[in-house]
Amino acid sequence: MNVAVVGTGYVGLVVGAGLAEMGNAVICADVDAAKVGRLQRNQLPIFEPGLEPLVVRNQAEGRLVFTTDVGDAVERSDVVFIAVGTPPDEDGSADLSHVLSVADTIGRHMNRPKLVVTKSTVPVGTAARVRAAVAANARVAFSVASNPEFLKEGAAVQDFMKPDRIILGVDGPEAEATLRELYEPFVRTGNPLLSMDVASAEVTKYAANAMLAARITLMNQFASLCERVGADVEQVRRGIGSDARIGKAFLFPGPGYGGSCFPKDVKALCASGREAGAPLEVLEAVDRANERQKRVPVAKLRRALGSLAGKTVAVWGLAFKAQTDDMREAAALVVVEELLAEGAQLRVHDPKAMEEARRRFGDRITCVEHRYDALEGADALLVLTEWQEYRVLDFDLAKRRMRRPLVVDARNLYEPARLREHGFTYDSIGRP
Ligand SMILES: NC(=O)c1ccc[n+]([C@@H]2O[C@H](COP(=O)([O-])OP(=O)(O)OC[C@H]3O[C@@H](n4cnc5c(N)ncnc54)[C@H](O)[C@@H]3O)[C@@H](O)[C@H]2O)c1
């Protein structure tokens, strides 16, 4: 199939490379000329395990092409995916300007019948607006479908190539048949291709993210309760996770969820609820609680150290989660700003996000190549991201490097008893 993917961010790039890998002819179009230029030279703008070989191979074999000419990509394709960003507007609702501007371009280049697919996460009712924007200029028949993406950053390629399910929001049999043909190679093991109406598909995406964000937030609140009453949230997590109705995933407390999706999608769904006269009170509370949670790590440091002015804090992990270099809405952004405002000096390490950290904070923080270098003269080590390489701590080395043996672990990576044995003062999330 001839496919255009408009927007080559996390989603568009993975979708484009994945569809090319299955043998489709894919043109990825983006307005960011620097990004496109780098991709043409096989330089990936993001770190995502397994993505580079897909891009290199499919580009070499001519199935994957990158361009800044969105109109040309549209004209040469039968299916056009819109995969541009939908950042939050001032009131929390999704800003659809990028999506609608792409829809406008598609309408102007509708040289033969096409299927237009919204891949971006968009509020219910957007497909109708996309249809209207395309129709304003299109002279031939076209359909609009909603095909939300559920990939996780850090495992995006695997999630796209072997999805748990694929949601096809369609308004007729033709659009459904086209999307089924495109996606059948991805579900050969039998995972479902679920067809539904367009509005339900749009709601499904937000509902899934809202459910996951709420689970994390509930665990964070259980953790706060555990701290007050002398219980251990890790025991509670095991206890509830073995209930088949609850399940084990997404029950890890931490410094608050971040990333490019949960925070903005929760806010956007709340906005949709308010607009539709069906307020999502639980979700509004989730959003507020998550913002508060991001302040917990610094509160713990303050409790242990008193004033933070002049103190040196080593931070391990800046990305919003492990296996990604993405710092969008990461707890680290709040933590770093809070620490700097209180006059602390920061020595930071992240296996993949250092470039992004330098871009965001410049010389206000000290970035180090090796994680133990961050501990030099530190009054505390703060662990913010659950990178595997942080899971084993060399106690002797850490103690030699640090001024004070204090560890605040916002990911519960270490055993409290072992740290105490080695003479550390240790605080984590929801454990005695
Ligand atoms: N990142 C994720 O994990 C994830 C997962 C599922 C769904 N989503 C959704 O997918 C969408 C894209 O997210 P992302 O993380 O890939 O965004 P991103 O910010 O990484 O990438 C968006 C890309 O679109 C390009 N773009 C913007 N306007 C354009 C235009 N008019 N024409 C062509 N290109 C344009 C930008 O230059 C950028 O490269 C969002 O709606 C997001 O909510 C993201």
What's this entry about, in short?
By secondary structure, this protein is α/β, with parallel strands linked by helices. The protein has 17 helices and 14 strands. Helix content is 43%, strand content 14%.
Write the layout of secondary structure elements.
Elements: E1 2-6, H1 10-21, E2 25-29, H2 33-40, H3 51-60, E3 64-67, H4 70-75, E4 79-82, H5 97-108, E5 114-118, H6 126-135, E6 142-146, H7 156-161, E7 166-169, H8 173-183, E8 193-196, H9 198-229, H10 233-241, H11 262-276, H12 281-293, H13 296-305, E9 312-316, H14 331-341, E10 345-349, H15 354-361, E11 366-367, E12 380-383, H16 395-401, E13 406-409, H17 416-421, E14 425-428
Parallel strand pairs: 1-2, 1-4, 2-3, 4-5, 5-6, 7-8, 9-10, 9-12, 10-11, 12-13, 13-14
Helix pairs in contact: 1-3, 5-6, 9-11, 9-12, 11-12
Mean pLDDT: 97
Q: What is the strand arrangement across the widest sheet? A: 3-2-1-4-5-6
Name the ligand types.
Answer: nicotinamide-adenine-dinucleotide
Low-confidence stretches: none
Instruction: Give me the Rg, rounded.
Output: 23 Å
How many strands?
14
Shape: globular
Compute the separation of the termini in Å: 57 Å
DSSP helical segment count: 17
Strand content: 5-15%
What is the helical fraction, as a range of percent? 40-55%
Oligomer: single chain
Reported for the largest beta sheet, the result is: 6 strands, parallel
Q: What are the defining features of this structure?
A:
single chain; alpha/beta; 6-stranded parallel sheet; 14 strands; 43% helix
